[in-house]
Amino acid sequence: MLNHCYTGQHKYNANMRVPNPKRPLGDITGAVRRTLIRPKPEGEAVEFAIPPLVTQELWLKANRATRERGRGRGKEGRIISALLRNRIFCPRCGKPMVVRRRTEGDKLYYLCSRLNHASEKEHCTYRRYVPGAWDYSVWDCVYAILKQDSWIQEKLSGIDRENHDVDKLVKLEQQKVLQTKNKITKVREGFEGGLYNLDEAKSKVNNYLVMIKQAEQEIERLIRLTGGQNSKVDVEELKKELERLVQANLDKATFAEKRDIINKLGIGVYPSEGLKTMKIRCSLNFGNDGDSQPSDRCAIIQFASLRSQ
């Protein structure tokens, strides 16, 4: 009934596809499309008249009734609310599981996204599904963590210790680079003094250059672990954010608030193949609220094992 041809006004080639401004999630149950259909600007469509079937008033009335009957149905009108969307991983292939709803009732479950994959290399053979009740189990775990009085200080002190240890390792690598450069200088002096021939000098210098490159790569890796030069500032911001979460009224948290907290804590759930237990990874991710993956600079701070329900 949405077609205007019923009223005698028809348009040919009236719509076009445009990129979706929202970031695609890769999960159709998230109600996010890669492209959207939008009408073309006025004058670009081809318009022509045909014999009408109904009046304009009847056409408008029928479309209003159709919209009212269909309100709240389908994936566009009813998004599946799942706390562990993109945060629970297949126990066999390790890829994120997707959300599905049972045909009977509103119960949801998680299924491996690669179970029905067309490519044999990317196909997964894990056919079991994870019950949606695990959402409540994971939230109970997060709730218990945030309610621990000593949790903030313990985790922040651990991050401080880790940053301090990393700083020591960086200084050791920097000292190694300096010492190796001094050795290169001595080799060049020995070559000029006749102690080494050309081939011996080149071989020694090349070996020292490889050592310097390896040390510099290690320094870059260590700096990434602490978030660069602003690691102390990050810890302070982390402390304020964690204190705000602990002081929040978690008992009355809405679904959106729970999802935001889980995203900030960087929760990742890893079930066992028998679904008897699950391992929960918690890594601080306050710098990338919309990112489904924890930040590289946020170290894993807790592993917990729970019995499935």
Question: How are the elements arranged and paired?
Answer:
Layout: E1 9-12, E2 15-19, E3 35-39, E4 46-49, H1 56-70, H2 74-77, E5 97-101, E6 108-112, E7 130-131, H3 134-146, H4 151-192, H5 198-225, H6 231-247, H7 255-265, E8 267-271, E9 277-283, E10 300-307
Antiparallel strand pairs: 1-4, 2-3, 5-6, 6-7, 8-9, 9-10
Helix/sheet category: alpha+beta
Beta strand count: 10
Number of helices, where a helix is a run of at least 4 consecutive DSSP H or I residues: 7
Shape descriptor: extended
Question: Taking Cα atoms only, what radius of gyration do you get, to the nearest Å?
Answer: 30 Å
Order of helices and strands: EEEEHHEEEHHHHHEEE
Average residue pLDDT: 75
The main sheet comes to:
3 strands, antiparallel
- The termini sit apart by 47 Å
* Unreliable parts: 229-233, 288-309
| Proportion in helices | 40-55%
Order of strands, widest sheet: 5-6-7
Strand proportion, as a percent range, falls in: 15-25%
Which labels suit this protein?
309 residues, alpha+beta, three-stranded antiparallel β-sheet, 7 helices, 42% helix, extended, disordered C terminus
Structure description:
The chain is 42% helix and 16% strand. With 309 residues, the protein is an alpha+beta fold. Among the domains are: 4-73, no CATH class; 151-231. Strands 5-6-7 form a three-stranded antiparallel beta sheet, with no helix packed on it. Helix 4 (151-192) packs antiparallel against helix 5 (198-225) and helix 4 packs antiparallel against helix 6. It is extended, with a radius of gyration of 30 Å. The two termini are 47 Å apart. The model is unreliable at 229-233 and 288-309 (pLDDT under 50).
